[in-house]
Amino acid sequence: MDGMIEQISNRLYQVTLFPKITGFDNFICAWVHKGSPSFVVDPGPSATSRQLLKALQDLNILHLDYILITHIHIDHAGAVSELADVFPDAKIVCHPAGIPHLKDPSRLWEGSLKTLGDIGKAYGPILPVAGERLVDAEGFNADNIISILTPGHSPHHASYEFGDHLFAGEAGGVFEQQSPDSFYLRPATPPRFFLNVSINSIDLLMGRDPTTICYGHYGVTHDAKEMLAKHRDQLLLWNRIMGEEIGNFHEKEFVRTCMDRLLKDDPLLQGFFRLDADQKEREIFFLTNSIRGFALSLTDSTDNA
Ligand SMILES: [Zn+2]
């Protein structure tokens, strides 16, 4: 299978990557900017590194200035080593908390297998990169690329601004355009999630006045600020609904009950019902993780109170 190249604007491409997992066909992408500077945002899983390299060849990209990592999860950073080998001049920019894991990904790989199981296996193991290739994203500002540290989805999450484009990773949720006027947007809040940290990150991104938001999953919209505001409201709605349910945290059906309520009451999740069966299965897996993350953060705050 080849990666699927879509031209987004003059020099920007979305390369869709196809890991061998049912329901994951239009879910994972790398963002590629050809020109000066030339860069890739999130090389994707190691299992699809050949698809990405083939796409870069088809785009006649012979040089990369940067590999920008939004976060070190193996569906985003997994192919970093394979890409770095082929493009020896590329600097790899990553949140400082992620850098040690790129140098030595053994614990990251173990953790990924534990969290993701067979999905993790299908993404494939992430390989180490040499320390001298790595650049701290904190304060990074070069060639019109500005990094913004946006912890929330993970503690080592960064977003990248380039002109009026924002490469937001999962800081603005998980997105899917379903028709010209309908989309699906889901919080990506696995444990350890902290609502205030996520909200602060969204506020930082909105403060940059972006026009175009390029999602880590999946696709692009040109009303970036409005989409970020919608996601911010969505997190607050989840907080209210989950807060009402949290008293039943120890019930066996807790996650199921929360999921039913969220799918009923969250307007941005309504696209779930338009997904096909395999995609629904994928989303139930990730919704479960997001609900767990939210619930644990709520139980923490009651414990501390
Ligand atoms: Zn992801």
Regarding quaternary structure, how should these chains be classified? Answer: single chain
Distinct small molecules: zinc ion
- Radius of gyration of CA atoms, rounded to a whole number: 18 Å
Please give the share of residues in helix: 25-40%
Biggest sheet descriptor = 7 strands, mixed
> Which range does the strand content fall in?
15-25%
**How would you classify the helix and strand content by structural class?**
alpha/beta
What does this structure look like?
With 305 residues, this protein is α/β, with parallel strands linked by helices. It is 37% helix and 21% strand. The protein contains nine helices and 15 strands. 44% of the residues are buried. Bound molecules: zinc ion. Residues 73, 75-76, 170, 216-217 line the site of zinc ion (ZN).
